[in-house]
Fold this sequence. Notes:
Layout: H1 8-17, H2 33-39, H3 71-79, H4 88-98, E1 101-104, E2 107-110
Amino acid sequence: MEKKDAKPRLIRWVLLLQEFDLEIRDKKGCENVVADHLSRIMLEEEDVSPDINDQFPDEYLMSVSVDPWYANFANYLAAGTLPEDWSRKRKQQFYSQVKHYFWDEPNLFKIG
């Protein structure tokens, strides 16, 4: 806080670090030999291009692992298809429920 020509960014860091017991010493760029040396190191350029990661985390963000409850209603009303593994009793239950719905593309509505 004693530095007279401190910039707002430096002041914010000082205020943040005040709660710790430490001593901060600031050196001008020409006096700071370590920083000056590090900034002058030449990096060897390599022709190796980085591997491209083809997997994106957002690809699976909207994926559905279980069909929604209305999938069979929408499939039946739009295309007239039912799952083949259903028993006769399950189909009868479905037919009694599906008569309360109608499909107005792209929406599924319930009557009543």
